[in-house]
Write a structure and sequence with these properties.
Number of helices: 14
Radius of gyration: 22 Å
Structural class: mainly alpha
Shape: elongated
Helix content: over 70%
Largest sheet: 2 strands, antiparallel
Strand content: under 5%
Number of strands: 2
């Protein structure tokens, strides 16, 4: 208690600095989840992707980033063991932010799409197990999170495979692909509107007074899906057939139809991502602020001040502008060659997986989900369409994320403990 009263201001300043650094890492690495497929499929340029992401990621983080954030993320640590020594939680959360931010900086500079959630989880498990004792960690929660590494890419990959095959069968194998695209794409527009509305309502808006049940979200998403379909039909009517000597089958015109869809999915996924993943940066930051302001009381949840969400949103935007292009390139072009129709299948599959996981309560990584979906689209075209070297590097970076976060957090935990005593 005395240490917190003595160094409270220093702890808050450090937490803000490390929180911004962590948010920078989220922007540099995780924004590729929302933008990678759109850029890789050439539906939008990297410049347009950055403008869309800057606006919608920031709005998502600020408007729907959460009024209440659990201080001890996902029930990983036992709060009873920290009650007598609240300063250990402060050291631990500062260590988790710095360790996860540092790992994300390394991964982003290499163009590796890693999970920001798992970086933070690994860091908290690391300082909890070594700093507080192995019994302080809820290993059941950690096991559930680890199982999602396998489940989410497999599920997203399967859905993407089926979606892309359906697009191929209904549209590309049709005698007149352009007419078929105009006929069937409104159905896909509804799917996009419905699924992305579900992602946003379930993952994005539960903290701004719109705490809707799964059923309410479902009904509202149906209405939004129908409204977006109406808008999509109006936009599709404006696309006229353009004859080109090099385009014998009219596939380029079909891809222009899907390009309209990709712009919408990019905006909506960026908003949902900003609202969801800003918690990785502001969760531990809220824990430190809560402990310092209550002079050592550890509550299971802390109110997040509005300026903390703006700090998180600003960090995400800064990370995207400075380093985001590297991971966007890996997801968008490194794994397999994407077109708007393939990118659409991957994005919608990833969004569907997020909705299913939210409905069942399975903790998943958006990064793992989207990479799995891109793999599924690539597999639909055969193994030769996949860049196995890039895939191997991505899987390796996933495997070392948790131990890297844990190792760095342990190092920083003892450093802070030694500094403040």
């Amino acid at each position: 208690m005395q240490i917190i009263a003595q160094h409270g201001e220093v702890f808050i300043i450090l937490a803000c600095l490390f929180g911004f650094f962590m948010a920078w890492g989220v922007g540099a690495n995780d924004v590729a989840n929302a933008m990678g497929t759109s850029v890789g499929s050439k539906a939008i340029t990297i410049k347009q992707a950055i403008i869309i992401a800057v606006i919608f990621e920031f709005l998502g983080a600020w408007l729907a980033g959460g009024e209440v954030t659990a201080t001890i993320r996902g029930g990983i640590l036992d709060p009873a063991l920290l009650a007598a020594h609240p300063e250990l939680l402060v050291y631990g959360m500062l260590s988790a932010l710095l360790a996860a931010g540092l790992w994300l900086m390394v991964a982003s500079s290499r163009g590796w799409p890693v999970s920001t959630t798992h970086s933070v989880v690994g860091a908290i498990v690391g300082f909890g197990a070594v700093g507080l004792g192995v019994d302080a960690v809820d290993w059941g929660s950690v096991g559930t999170i680890a199982s999602s590494w396998l489940v989410s890419p497999l599920l997203a990959g399967t859905i993407a495979f089926v979606l892309f095959k359906s697009v191929h069968h209904l549209i590309f194998e049709n005698s007149d692909p352009f007419v078929a695209a105009k006929r069937y794409v409104p159905g896909y527009v509804f799917l996009v509107g419905f699924i992305v509305s579900m992602v946003t309502l379930i993952k994005g808006l539960s903290h701004v007074g719109l705490d809707l049940s799964f059923g309410q979200s479902f009904v509202l998403s149906l209405v939004l899906g129908l409204a977006i379909t109406g808008l999509g039909v109006v936009m599709l009517r404006r696309i006229k057939y353009e004859k080109a000597a090099s385009d014998h089958f009219g596939y380029a015109n079909v891809e222009r139809v899907f390009g309209v869809l990709m712009v919408f999915t990019a905006c909506a996924m960026a908003f949902a991502h900003g609202s969801n993943d800003v918690a990785n940066a502001v969760g531990p930051l809220a824990a430190v602020i809560g402990v310092v302001q209550s002079e050592g009381m550890i509550d299971s949840a802390s109110l997040v001040p509005w300026w903390v969400l703006i700090l998180g949103g600003g960090g995400i935007v800064f990370g995207l502008v400075t380093y985001g292009h590297k991971v966007i390139a890996t997801v968008g072009t490194g794994i397999t060659e994407l077109t708007p129709s393939r990118g659409f299948a991957a994005t919608l599959a990833a969004a569907t997986t997020v909705v299913l996981a939210s409905g069942t309560g399975l903790p998943i990584s958006t990064t793992h989900t989207l990479v799995g979906a891109v793999l599924g689209v690539g597999l639909a075209r055969g193994m030769a369409a996949l860049n196995l070297r890039v895939i191997g590097t991505i899987v390796m970076s996933w495997l070392i994320t948790l131990p890297a976060g844990a190792g760095l957090a342990i190092l920083f935990f003892f450093m802070f403990k030694g500094m403040f005593g």
